[in-house]
Specification:
- The chain has 155 residues and is α+β, with helices and mostly antiparallel strands.
- The protein has helices at 2-43, 48-84, 128-133, and strands spanning 96-99, 103-107, 110-115, 118-124, 141-144, 147-154.
- It has a six-stranded mixed beta sheet with strand order 3-4-2-1-6-5.
- 17% of the residues are buried.
- The model has no long low-confidence stretch (mean pLDDT 90).
Length: 155
């Protein structure tokens, strides 16, 4: 049973890494596409309207670059978990948590991850719901937004 839980945990982590890689690659592709547009505008800048467009494009690129840096920092968290992934009784970073409402993977914010036809919702250690469940064990409960979650299993 413990080997099955550890394998599931590794599979969920692998799905989270794959999703994060896709996110980073999409940001990178978008930045490259926008950079080509900026270069073209710089070479053909004829009036103030095009200069304004170029400034707006630069601001958008800075925003995307910031999002990409955040995604890369979250990827670092996932890679750190790979080397320390194990089973634990208390909820902490790296835990899988099954509740009566949904399943959570405590690592980074992520849309639903599906592994073995079961959805897992990725949350970071900075999320308010993590603060409500941190340190709890199987059989415990916690409240979030007027909803009571019963912890069915955590490992």
């Amino acid at each position: 049973m413990n080997n099955d839980k550890l394998k599931l945990k590794k599979d969920v982590l692998a799905a989270a890494i794959e999703k994060q890689e896709t996110l980073i690659n999409n940001f990178d592709l978008r930045l490259k596409e926008m950079s080509k547009g900026e270069k073209f505008i710089n070479e053909t800048q004829f009036d103030a309207q095009q200069a304004s467009f170029n400034n707006e494009l630069n601001e958008q690129m800075e925003g995307i670059a910031g999002q990409m840096a955040f995604a890369q920092a979250e990827m670092n968290i996932l890679h750190q978990l790979q080397s320390s992934l194990g089973l634990q009784d208390e909820i902490r970073v790296g835990s899988l948590v099954a509740t009566n409402h949904r399943n959570f993977f405590i690592a980074v914010s992520s849309e639903d991850l599906e592994v073995n036809n079961t959805p897992y919702f990725g949350i970071s250690a900075k999320a308010p719901i993590y603060a409500a469940m941190a340190g709890k064990k199987t059989g415990d409960s916690f409240k979030m937004n007027d909803m009571t979650y019963q912890i069915i299993d955590t490992f």
